[in-house]
Amino acid sequence: MTDTNMRLRLPVVCIVLEVILIILFGILVEYDSNTDAKKWHANTTIDMDNEFYYRYPSFQDVHVMIFIGFGFLMTFLQRYGFSSVGFNFLIAAFSLQWATIMQGVLHSIHHGSHGVKIHVGVLNMINADFCTGSVLISFGAVLGKTSPIQMLIMAIFEVTLFSVNEFILLEYLGAKDAGGSMTIHTFGAYFGLMVTRVLYRPNLSKSKERNSSVYHSDIFAMIGTIYLWMFWPSFNSAITAQGDDQHRTALNTYYSLAACTLATYGFSALVNHEGKLDMVHIQNAALAGGVAVGTAGEMMLTPFGSMIVGFLAGTISVLGYKYLSPILESKLKIQDTCGVHNLHGMPGVLGAIVGAITAAAASPSVYGLGIVDVFPDIKEDYTASYQASMQIASLAVTLAIALLGGLIVGFLLKLPICGAPPDTLCFEDSVYWEMPGEEEGHGELTTVKTPEETDKLN
Amino acid sequence: MTDTNMRLRLPVVCIVLEVILIILFGILVEYDSNTDAKKWHANTTIDMDNEFYYRYPSFQDVHVMIFIGFGFLMTFLQRYGFSSVGFNFLIAAFSLQWATIMQGVLHSIHHGSHGVKIHVGVLNMINADFCTGSVLISFGAVLGKTSPIQMLIMAIFEVTLFSVNEFILLEYLGAKDAGGSMTIHTFGAYFGLMVTRVLYRPNLSKSKERNSSVYHSDIFAMIGTIYLWMFWPSFNSAITAQGDDQHRTALNTYYSLAACTLATYGFSALVNHEGKLDMVHIQNAALAGGVAVGTAGEMMLTPFGSMIVGFLAGTISVLGYKYLSPILESKLKIQDTCGVHNLHGMPGVLGAIVGAITAAAASPSVYGLGIVDVFPDIKEDYTASYQASMQIASLAVTLAIALLGGLIVGFLLKLPICGAPPDTLCFEDSVYWEMPGEEEGHGELTTVKTPEETDKLN
Amino acid sequence: MTDTNMRLRLPVVCIVLEVILIILFGILVEYDSNTDAKKWHANTTIDMDNEFYYRYPSFQDVHVMIFIGFGFLMTFLQRYGFSSVGFNFLIAAFSLQWATIMQGVLHSIHHGSHGVKIHVGVLNMINADFCTGSVLISFGAVLGKTSPIQMLIMAIFEVTLFSVNEFILLEYLGAKDAGGSMTIHTFGAYFGLMVTRVLYRPNLSKSKERNSSVYHSDIFAMIGTIYLWMFWPSFNSAITAQGDDQHRTALNTYYSLAACTLATYGFSALVNHEGKLDMVHIQNAALAGGVAVGTAGEMMLTPFGSMIVGFLAGTISVLGYKYLSPILESKLKIQDTCGVHNLHGMPGVLGAIVGAITAAAASPSVYGLGIVDVFPDIKEDYTASYQASMQIASLAVTLAIALLGGLIVGFLLKLPICGAPPDTLCFEDSVYWEMPGEEEGHGELTTVKTPEETDKLN
Fold this sequence. Notes:
Chains A, B, C: Belongs to the ammonium transporter (TC 2.A.49) family. Rh subfamily. The structure is a homotrimer of 458-residue chains. Chain A has helices spanning 9-28, 37-43, 51-73, 81-111, 122-142, 148-172, 181-198, 215-237, 244-270, 279-284, 288-292, 302-332, 340-360, 364-367, 371-374, 384-412, 451-457, and strands at 29-31, 118-120. With 458 residues, chain A is mainly alpha-helical. Chain A has a two-stranded parallel ribbon. Chains in contact: A-B, A-C, B-C.
C-alpha cells in the first residue's frame, strides 16, 4: 500500500514547479504589442483596436468553462467534490502557466528571429486555457484514482505533448481546428484513456460504493454542465479570425448544441427500460455537440449542417455511455470515470471528420473574400481537397501522439512516490483533504469526525 | 392513473421535433450579412463593426439567465432539482430553435421580397433566447405537475403564439418593449397561469410534503436568483439600439433592481409575524425590478424614475406572494408553483404601464437626435401620446392572446398520452429520472434505493 | 439578551433608506454624456466609442464577483448560507446606491462648476460595485455575529468613509490604485477587523459548533472562490485606462493568481500534520494573488513580477490562516470569521507596497508614450520616486481612516436596538430567516420544524 501522505511531496512539487515557472517567465516572457505600454502607444492611437476588446469577453467565458465547467462537472461523485473542483483548480492553475511557456517557445522558435522570446497577450491566455482544457479532459478519465502529485506530473507531460501536437497540426500540416476537436478533445480524451488503461485497477470495485452520485452532487454537476453548454459558442469562436468568423462560429455552435440536447434527451429515455432519463447522459452527452463542431464551426457549415452534426454527436455519446463504456471497461480494461470517451473522444473524432469534409467543400464561391480568413493556405496549388487530407492527417497524428504519450506517461505515474490512493480509498476526498464535520438531518450539528470515519482512513 | 413511462413517447417527440427543425433550418435558414463569409467581406473591412462585438457579451449574459437563472431558480423544490434544471434545459434547447424559425418566418414575410428566408446572426440568438424565457416563465407556473412531453407540446404552441404576439406588437402597433415587460413577462405569466388553471388538480395536497424547499435546495435556488438579478441589465439592453441606448438601459435596470431589493427585504420582514425573512420573497420579488423596467428601461426614465419603479415592483411582488397567491389558489383554482404572477405577471403589467407613461412624456427636447433610436415612429403626425396609446393597446393584445392561448393549450395538455404525473407524485424527480442512491449522514454510503422508495414509485 | 425580532426595525430601515436614496437620486443624479440620448447624439455618431463597449463586460464580471463571489464564498458556514448570500445581497444592493451618491458628490464638488450634479454611466456602476466590495470584506470579518440592521448601519458609514479615503488617495495624493489593493482591500479588511474587535464576544464559543463548515457548504463556497478567482483580472482592469492598460492589467492578474494558487496548495499541505489540504486555504488564500496586484497590475510589472507577487501573497495568506489568526483571536480579541486579514488585509498591504516599488521604477524608457495613461502626474517636477512616496502615504492614510472609522462604527453597532444575535445563536440562519423543513436521508420528507428546533429558537 502506497503512502498517501502529501506533507512533503505536494509542497515540494508545487513550490519547485512554481519557482521554475517564475524563472522561465523571467527569462522568456515579455508583453506583446497589445499589452506593452511603450509598444502599444508607438503603434496606434485607437484603443478599440486593441485585441483585448475582440477577445477578452470570449476569454472570460473560456475561463469559466475551465474552472467552473470542468470543475463542477466532475463533482457528480458523492465523496469527491473537494478533489474534483480543487484538483481541477490546481492542475489548471499550473497548466496554464506551463502551456504559456511551451506554446510560446514552439511558436517563437518557428516565427522568431531575435532569439526565443514569448510575447504574451489575451490570445496566449486563451490558448493556455485551451491546453489546460485538454489536461482536464484526461483528468476526467482517471478521476478518483490518482493523487494530486500524479496529476501534476501528468500535466507536465501532457501540456508538452499537447503543444507539440498542436504545433505540428497548425504549423506543419496547416490544419484548421479553432475549437480543438482534434487538438483539445481528441488529444485529451485518448491520452487520458491510455493513462487510465495503464493505471488499470483490477480491484477498483472495492471503492464502487463511492463511484456514483447522490442527489445533491448531481445538481452540483449540472452547474458544470450548463456552464460548459452555454459558453461553448465562446470556446469555439475565441481564437477564430475577427469579424464574421467569430460570429459565425458562435452561431453554429449554438445550434449544434441545441440539436444535440434534444438527441440526448430522446436517446437517454430510449435506452432506459423504464423510459427514465439518466443524469449521466444529460450532464455529458448534451455537450457533445460543442465538441463535434470544434473544427468545422468556423467554416460555412450552415446552421442546418451544425444541427445535423450536433444531433449525431448527442446520439453517439448517449449510446457510448450505455453500450460502449461497459465494454471498454470489461474487455479493454479502460476505467473511464467520467466517460470522456463518450463526451470528448468519439465526438472529437466526429468533429475532425466533419471538419475535413467541410474543408473539402470550401470554395471562393461560398466564402468570397472571406476564404483567406478561414483557409489562408487554399490557393491555386493548395486545393480544398488537399486541405481536407491535411485535416485527416492531423487526426491521425493526434491519435498517435495521444496514445503513445498516454502510454509512456501512464507508466511514469505508477511510481510509488506519487502517492496514489489504495483501491479501497478511491473516489474519496478524505485521503487528501482535511474533512469538515458531518451534516446531520436532525438538528444536532457536530464538527468532529465519527470514530468509524477516522478508523476507516487510518 | 396515467402512464408516466417515457420509454417511447419522449424519444419519439424529441427526435421527431429535432428532425423537423433540421429540415426547416435546411430550407429556410441562411447566414446573415454579419455571419456569412462572402457577404461580410463584400461589405466591409472593419471587423469591429460586426454586430457580434455589440451584442455577444449581452447575449451570453441572457443565455446564462435562461439556462442557469431560470433553471436553478426552480431548484428550490426539495425533490425536483433534476427536473427543474433538466426540463428547463430541454425546453429551452427546443424553444430556441423553434423560436428562430417562428420569429424569422414572420419577420421574413413582413420584410422579405425574395421568398421566405431567415437570415440569422446574434440578434436572432438573443430573440430566440427571449422567446424561450417566456416559455420558461410558463413552466414555472406548472412546475412539478407536468411531464416533459406536456412541456414540449406547450413550448410548440407558446413559441408560436409568442412570436405572433410579438410580431403584432412590434410591427403593427409599433410598440417599444426591448426588455419584454409585455412580450416576455406578461405573456409568459398569464399564458402559464391559464394553463395551470385548466390543469387544476383538486387533490394536489397529496403531494404537498414535496411542494416546498429544504435548506440546500433554497441555496441552489439562490444561484438562479443572483444570476438573474446580476444579468438583468444585459437582458433589458441586449436588443436596444447601439450606443447610448444599450448603456442607458443597463444603467436604469441596475438601479431599479437595487431599489427593488431593499423593498423586498423590508416588506418580507414586515409581513412575517416574527419579522423573519422569507426565502421565497428574496428569491423572486427582488427580481421584479428588472421585469418592471423591461419596457421603459431604454427610455429617458432617469435613474430616479427607475428606482421608484423598482421599489414599487418589489413591494407588489412581496405582497402578492403573501396575500394574493393564496387567494388565487383557493378562489380561482390557480396553482402557481413558482408564483410567476408575482414575479412576472403583476410586475410585467406595471412595466407596460410605466412604459406607456414614459413614452407619453417623450419629446425631442429630452431625447435630442436620439429620439429616432428610441421612438423611430414619433414624428409630426405620430405623437408621443399616440405612442403611449399603442403601448397600452399592446398590453391588452398581449393579455388577450396569452389568456386565450393558455386556455386552449391547457386543454390540449390534458390528453392522457402526455404522461402527466399522478397527484401523489407531483414535485417528484423519480417519476421521470433515474435516481442516484441516498445520501447518508453517518458515513455509510449506498447506491441502491430504499425499499420504501421503490415501493412508493411503483 | 437583545431582541432579534426584525418585524418593524428591518422594514423601517430598508424603506426609509431607500426613500432617502430615491430622493437624493432625484435631486442629484443625471445621465452622463454616454447614457443621455440628447448629449450622446449631440457629440458623436460612432456607437462603438461609447464607454459601454469598453467597460460593460468588465462591469458584469465585477458584478458577479460582488454578488456571487462574495455571497457564495461566505456560504461555507453550515447553518448560515441564507444569511451569507442573502445579507450579502441586501448590503450590496444598498451600498451600490449609496456609493453612487457619496463617490459622485465628492467627485462633483471637486470637478464640478455648476452646482453638485452626479453624472452616471458604467464607470459609476463599477466604482459603486468596488465600494460595495469593501463593505462586503468587512462583512466577512463580522459574519455570523451581526444583525442585518447592524450591517446596513455599518454600510452607511463605511461607504462614506471609503469614499472619503478613496477621494483623498486619488484626488489629493495622486495615488494609483485601479484594483483597490489599498482603497478596497486594505480599507475593508482593517475597518472590519476593528469593528469585530469592538464587538468582541468572550462567549462566542457557545456557538462554536456552528462556526464551521460541512461537506456541501464547502462546495457551495467554492462557487464563490472560483468566480472571484476567474474574474479578478476583470476586477483589476475594469477602470484602468483603455487599450493596453486594461489588457496588461488583466494579463498580470491572470498570472499572479495562477502562481498564488500553486503556493496555496503547497503551503496548505505543508502546514497540515497529515499533509492534507485545508479547504479554508483553498477557498481564500488562492485569491490573495488578485488582491496583491491590485495596485501594480496596471503598471509594467511584467508577468514574471506578477507571479512573484502572487506567490508571496498565497504564502503569507496560508501562513496567516494557520498561525496568525489564532493569535489575533486569543491575544488581540479579533474574531475574524472569514479570515479577511489573511485574504484582504495582509495581501492588500503587500499590494500597496508592491505598487509603490513598481511606481518608483517607472520611467518613459519603459512606458513610452503610455506613461501618461498609467502615471498622468509624473512629469519633470513630479518624479517616480515622489509617486512612490505618495503611494506609501496612501497606505498610511487608508490604515488610519479604516482603523479609526472601524473603532467608531463598532461602538455604534453595540446599540441594543440593532438586534444582534445572542452568543448562543451566532452563525445561525433561523434567527433572521423563516426556515424550510429538514432534509431527511431516509426517504421521508417533512416540511415542519422539529419541536426541538422550534424550542431552541424561542
